[in-house]
Amino acid sequence: MNRSRSFNRFHRYLARQKRHGLKAVLPQSSQLGSIINGGVDRRRDDLDRLSHQDIEMELLESQS
Question: How many domains does the chain have?
Fold first, then answer.
């Protein structure tokens, strides 16, 4: 059990080092990600708004 725990810890450590290294090399990646995800977030908000409108319409129709 101790060996697998240390093995997992070591690989988590290596993954963290790799992530930090990549973030240092690619500082613009966060800006690029926000640009790419901006359209996705807007579409998701539109879909949420439309689904809420559909639910309200169904509730109003059921009350009539």
Answer: 1
